[in-house]
């Protein structure tokens, strides 16, 4: 009976703490709504990786319309960004943004002095007290990280910094081989035009393609590589769909399996890249839909229809 009472008290305290965190979260959003970075696309309502990709490509393609112009992109992924956050640095920034002292002190107390141990079976490790990083899964942390990095902005009008959570892309719009503003943006030295990029003594690798928010972005801004890779991945998933069909599973189950395992691959950020696909790329994608029809014995809509529906949904959300 005593153990049950203790469990109830713990649950009541947990619910109270959770409610308190949500209330503080709403209070911070209200006080600092103007401080939220407009080019931070993570943890924001009605924003997604589609918007981050579209914004980045729009900047680059518009600039290429100018004479003697090109662009450079630096892709940065901070290692263990949430786990290495220093609460004291965060509090200084929150104070400068105008958050009241009592709420700053509450956040500092919440993030520091956290006991942590690891349990495996019946074995429990010794307790370690943490005063850096942030609790995993807490709804407050994404907002705090966004505010911590709100001042990571471009200092020159020809540069743009696009962010999605801790993934950061520096876009330099360059004309007449003048890379000075771009190179100053990421604090490096240069020897000549198109020379290697060096940050803190380390050479930044130049690649022909990179995975950018879930899509494969080529240096020539075409989508053949992305189409090829996602088609290959989708074909691998269709193998299991065919196996399920041979087991005589009903069509609704096959459809659910396809949507969860294959369509999610084909439609990831599709509003950002499908419109610029070549005819050959579109035919390659449509062959997947044909294979699905054969596997499910039902008619499947063309990829174009899926794109139009998703774009219409995004437009409604923006309005």
Automatic annotation (TrEMBL):
Q: List residues of the Reverse transcriptase domain.
A: 1-217
A molecular function (GO) held by this record is: methyltransferase activity
The protein in question is named Gastrula zinc finger protein XlCGF28.1-like
Which source organism? Answer: Silurus asotus (Amur catfish)
Q: Kindly give the PANTHER family that the UniProt entry links to this protein.
A: ENDO_EXONUCLEASE_PHOSPHATASE DOMAIN-CONTAINING PROTEIN (PTHR47510:SF3), REVERSE TRANSCRIPTASE DOMAIN-CONTAINING PROTEIN (PTHR47510)
**Which InterPro entries does the record match to this protein?**
AlkB_hom8_N (IPR015095), DNA/RNA_pol_sf (IPR043502), RT_dom (IPR000477)
> Which superkingdom heads the taxonomic lineage of this protein's source?
Eukaryota
């Amino acid at each position: 009976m005593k153990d049950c009472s203790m469990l109830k008290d713990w649950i009541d305290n947990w619910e109270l703490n959770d409610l308190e965190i949500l209330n503080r979260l709403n209070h911070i959003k209200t006080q600092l709504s103007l401080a939220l970075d407009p080019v931070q696309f993570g943890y924001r309502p009605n924003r997604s990786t589609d918007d981050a990709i579209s914004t980045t490509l729009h900047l680059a393609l518009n600039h290429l319309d100018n004479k003697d112009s090109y662009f450079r992109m630096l892709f940065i992924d901070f290692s263990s960004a949430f786990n290495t956050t220093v609460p004291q640095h965060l509090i200084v920034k929150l104070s400068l943004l105008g958050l009241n002292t009592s709420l700053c002190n509450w956040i500092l107390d919440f993030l520091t002095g956290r006991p942590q141990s690891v349990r495996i079976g019946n074995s429990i490790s010794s307790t370690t007290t943490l005063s850096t990083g942030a609790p995993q899964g807490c709804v407050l942390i994404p907002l705090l990280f966004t505010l911590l990095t709100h001042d990571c902005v471009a200092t020159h009008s020809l540069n743009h910094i696009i962010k999605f959570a801790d993934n950061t892309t520096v876009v330099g719009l360059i004309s007449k081989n003048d890379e000075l503003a771009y190179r100053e943006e990421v604090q490096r030295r240069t020897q000549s035009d198109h020379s290697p990029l060096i940050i803190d003594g380390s050479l930044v690798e130049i690649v022909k393609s990179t995975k950018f928010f879930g899509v494969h972005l080529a240096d020539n801004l075409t989508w053949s590589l992305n189409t090829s890779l996602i088609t290959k991945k989708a074909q691998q998933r269709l193998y299991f769909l065919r196996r399920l069909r041979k087991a005589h599973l009903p069509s609704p189950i096959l459809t659910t399996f396809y949507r969860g395992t294959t369509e999610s691959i084909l439609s990831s950020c599709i509003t950002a890249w499908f419109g610029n696909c070549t005819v050959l790329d579109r035919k390659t994608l449509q062959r997947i839909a044909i294979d699905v029809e054969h596997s499910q014995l039902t008619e499947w809509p063309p990829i174009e229809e899926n794109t139009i529906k998703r774009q219409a949904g995004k437009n409604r959300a923006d309005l």
